[in-house]
Each structure stands twice: as C-alpha cells, then as structure tokens.
Predict the structure.
Amino acid sequence: MHIGLVGLGKMGGNMRTRLREAGHTVVGYDRNPDLADVASLTEMVEALPSPKVVWVMVPAGEPTRSTIAELKELLGEGDLVVDGGNSKYTDDAKNAESLAEKGIGFVDCGVSGGVWGLQNGYALMYGGSEENAAKVMPAFEALKPSGTEDGLVHCGSTPGAGHFSKMVHNGIEYAMMQAYAEGWELLDKVDIVDNVPEIFASWRTGTVVRSWLLDLLVEQLRADEHLDKIRGYAEDSGEGRWTVEAAIENAVPLPAISASLFARFVSRQKDDQAMKAVAAMRNGFGGHAVISESEA
C-alpha cells in the first residue's frame, strides 16, 4: 500500500523503515528536513494515490490537533487519517467528528514498542469502524510483531477505544516499573545480599515476575550496579495521569498505578533512589533521556 507518515522521530522513523521493509511505499514528512522525504504536508498528500491514508506520529495535544486540522483541508472524501501518537482518548471523538464533515475517516491507534519496535514489531491497539480500519490494515499487519496472532487488536468501534487501551497499558507499566524499582532499592541497600544484578537476572527464567522490563533493568544494572551514573528523576508522559483521571471518573480504585504516578512527582523534589531504576528502564525501552549525576 501507499501511506503518508507525519512525524519521523524515534518511533515514526523506525515505523517508516519497517513498513518499507515489508514492501509498502511510505512518503514521510517531518519538520526536520533531514528526516523528511518531502518538503510539506501538501507535497506528501499530493504524492499519495486515492483513497489516501495518512498516519500521524507527532506529540500529543496541540501538535496532533493542528496536524489533523491541516490534513482535513488537504484530504477528501474516502481518505483516512490514523492518529498513532499518544493522544488523550477524549480528543479522538472531536477529531473523528471534524474529519467526517468532509467524509474523511479516522482511526485512533495506540502504539507500543518504543525504540525496539523496528526489530520486534509494535503492539497496536486501534479504535474506529471496521471499514476505516480495513484501509490501513496492510500497514497494521506489517508493523505488528511477526509470527504471532497477538499484537494487533480492534479495541472498539468508538473513536478513542484504541488510545484508551494504550493509556491503561501505560498506567500498568508505571506500576510494574515502580515495583521492580522498589525491590531493587531494598536489595541494593541491605548487607545480607550480594550480587543484586544477578539476582534480578535469575528472575528472568521460570518466575512469575519475568518480563521485558526486567530484562532491561538487568542490562542497566550489569552496566552500573548501583546506578550511580543516573539521577533518581523520572518524567511522566501524561498517560499515567489520564489513567488515574479516568479511574476517578469511573469510580475504579487504582491504588498501585496512582502511587506509582505520585512517586514520579516525588522524584522531582529530591533524588529518589528507586527512581534511578525507573529512569533506567524508561531509557531502555523508549530511549527516554536520563539525567546523569554529573548533570545534576
């Protein structure tokens, strides 16, 4: 298929490569001309055959909203916009309604895979009608992990279902990282235990706490056993906050996820030992920046 891709950063650039390796034609646009295939959104749209499919991978909020608004003026009836960024699910209904005024379809897609998606594939959680999803399905199949039926799921026909699911995924991720981090801090502090990195490594086989996050933490601990080079400071992407907000709106108790979000706020007030491990894992899976002790 032919597809336009807006936003060629850490995720979008690797997605373009994976799509091309699967035989698809990708016309990419980015504000950084060194990354872009074309000079403007207009040129990108003009290069696509109809019905046109454009996938947006830009930061959530106003950058995404303004990009979709611009695409609305460039696309026409039967075309499709896919929002694959980390947009708040409440934005999706508004974007879908606006695009529908011109007969343009809309699909929201939560994408998980970080900087390793090029190699391993991406978990894709999408919302919208089956008719609209069918137009981008070849791209979905190329981006999802190979050799498995999992990794691609239609979360619901209501716009926002995909991003809501990805939001909850990220909330769970917050709590998992916090649990690993707190366990590491306790093991690292006591005198009775030796060789903490290999203790964590031993948990990767046969135990119920094995995961990719654990693999990433082991890698970081083997390189810097006490994480002395990392400051205990961790940002939040916004989706943890939205998860807690949705829990409040729906009267669903999320004590672990809420506590993990608040722990990140605490990390910005003082150097938090456990948050060194959270920062290390975020760097491992998503390439998120860490603050070194020398920078602090």
User: Anything to note?
Assistant: Strands lie at 2-6, 25-29, 53-56, 80-83, 105-112, 123-127, 152-156. The longest strand covers residues 105-112. The radius of gyration is 20 Å.
